[in-house]
């Protein structure tokens, strides 16, 4: 059990940047857990925000699964559930995560230092690419293209600067389409595989419709997972008792701590829904709902792996959303973080040399962590024997 810490006003690393990034809103905002759950489970509610504008700009005959509702959404979620099921995570993806972790940490030990957020992105891209089927182009180059159209770039909403960013974003999406999505589609038309793109082709999706799915899966599966892993590592590097708790815990205990960190520091800070008869989209304040003391108890902005959570509420509370559109890749992300961080934190001499800088990304209404520098003892390459 973690020794209780003295009460503090707010231990969240991202509290200031969330406020300064324009997160605090007025008007149609839901900030309590019960209200947030009611909106997210409302069958009449429709998706808004989180890449909706980007997808609308590029255009599509079929809306991506992220923006479907009702029976159409239920049918697609059921059809794609096998890609995120526990059996897939514990089998196919676990082996991939372990192999990528060994590769990335092997390079870290040979070189002695690395950017943690860069390692996390490489891992997230490898796993998400396998699930989606984006495996016919260079992964590192693809990651850069995805980051180019999802990275934060300020909060301008009108004027020449906003227009320029819109055009540049469309250009980056087009490059992603030509260099990553089209080669994957061509490969799977010739030889279908057990991945999302092959499923979409079988469903009769056009190339542009497949692109919109890849854009949303790319942002959700790659970019946000990178932030989650970096944030969880940052907390454990700076809090030795959390690090010791994580290393000593079994798999369920590790995931419980990761969920608690994610509850305190949710990557996506706001979700949006449109409700019948309401002119403006309703903003669901995930950060506030995750700190609702009626659900999570006292000192809600403190990381406590032994925290008692209200019945029938997941430990991450609203961090993966709720209702029909709850993040399908939640289990994948948690296991990625658990396997990677367990191996990382056991490396000889591993430490955080430089904490990451924090910025606010208005597209995902969440934080970005960049420049987290980690160092470890250098391990000489093993001699080649005949």
Task: Give a verbal description of the structure.
There is one protein chain. The protein is an alpha+beta fold and 386 residues long. It has helices at 15-20, 33-40, 52-58, 70-80, 86-111, 116-132, 139-150, 159-190, 196-202, 207-238, 240-248, 251-264, 286-289, 293-296, 330-344; strands at residues 29-30, 46-48, 113-115, 270-274, 282-285, 351-354, 357-361, 366-370, 373-375. The strands form 3 sheets. It has a 4-stranded mixed sheet. Strands 3-9-6 form a 3-stranded antiparallel sheet. The protein is globular, with a radius of gyration of 21 Å.
Give the integer mean of the pLDDT values: 86
The tally of strands reads 9
What's the end-to-end separation, in Å? 50 Å
> Which geometry do the CA atoms define?
globular
**Main sheet summary:** 4 strands, mixed
Query: Secondary-structure element sequence?
Result: HEHEHHHEHHHHHHHEEHHHEEEE
Number of helices in the DSSP assignment: 15
Question: Runs with pLDDT <50, length 5+?
Answer: 153-159
Which strand order do you get reading across the main beta sheet?
A: 1-5-4-2
Radius of gyration: 21 Å
Q: Regarding quaternary structure, how should these chains be classified?
A: single chain
Structural class: alpha+beta
Helix content: 40-55%
How much strand?
Answer: 5-15%
Which secondary structure elements does this structure contain, and how are they paired or packed?
Blueprint: H1 15-20, E1 29-30, H2 33-40, E2 46-48, H3 52-58, H4 70-80, H5 86-111, E3 113-115, H6 116-132, H7 139-150, H8 159-190, H9 196-202, H10 207-238, H11 240-248, H12 251-264, E4 270-274, E5 282-285, H13 286-289, H14 293-296, H15 330-344, E6 351-354, E7 357-361, E8 366-370, E9 373-375
Parallel strand pairs: 1-5
Antiparallel strand pairs: 2-4, 3-9, 4-5, 6-9, 7-8
Helix pairs in contact: 5-6, 5-15, 6-7, 6-10, 7-8, 7-10, 8-10, 10-11, 10-15, 12-15
């Amino acid at each position: 059990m973690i020794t209780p810490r003295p009460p503090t006003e707010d231990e969240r690393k991202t509290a200031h940047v969330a406020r300064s990034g324009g997160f605090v809103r007025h008007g149609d905002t839901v900030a309590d857990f019960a209200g947030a759950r009611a909106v997210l489970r409302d069958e009449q509610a429709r998706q808004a925000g989180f890449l909706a504008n980007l997808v609308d700009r590029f255009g599509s005959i079929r809306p991506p699964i992220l923006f479907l509702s009702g029976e159409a959404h239920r049918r697609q979620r059921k059809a794609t559930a096998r890609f995120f099921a526990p059996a897939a995570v514990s089998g196919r993806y676990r082996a991939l995560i372990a192999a990528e972790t060994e590769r990335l940490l092997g390079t870290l030990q040979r070189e002695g230092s690395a950017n943690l957020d860069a390692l996390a992105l490489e891992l997230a891209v490898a796993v998400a690419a396998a699930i989606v089927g984006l495996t016919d182009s260079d992964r590192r180059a693809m990651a850069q293209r995805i980051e180019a159209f999802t990275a934060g770039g300020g909060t301008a909403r009108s004027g020449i600067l906003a227009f320029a960013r819109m055009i540049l974003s469309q250009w980056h999406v087009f490059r992603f389409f030509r260099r990553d999505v089209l080669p994957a589609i061509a490969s799977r038309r010739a030889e279908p595989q057990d991945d999302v793109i092959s499923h979409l082709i079988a469903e009769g999706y056009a190339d542009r419709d497949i692109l919109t799915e890849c854009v949303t899966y790319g942002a959700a599966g790659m970019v946000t997972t990178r932030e989650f892993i970096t944030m969880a590592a940052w907390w454990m590097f700076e809090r030795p008792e959390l690090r010791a708790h994580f290393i000593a815990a079994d798999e369920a205990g590790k995931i419980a701590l990761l969920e608690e960190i994610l509850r305190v520091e949710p990557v996506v800070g706001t979700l949006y829904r449109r409700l019948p008869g309401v002119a403006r989209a309703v903003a669901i304040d995930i950060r506030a709902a995750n700190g609702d003391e009626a659900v999570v108890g006292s000192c809600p902005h403190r990381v406590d792996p032994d925290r008692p959570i209200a019945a029938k509420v997941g430990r991450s509370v609203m961090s993966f959303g709720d209702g029909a559109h709850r993040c399908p890749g939640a289990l994948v992300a948690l296991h990625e973080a658990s396997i990677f961080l367990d191996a990382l934190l056991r490396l000889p001499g591993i430490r955080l040399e430089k904490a990451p800088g924090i910025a606010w990304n208005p597209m995902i209404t969440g934080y970005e962590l960049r420049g987290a520098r980690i160092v470890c003892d250098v391990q000489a390459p093993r001699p080649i024997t005949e």
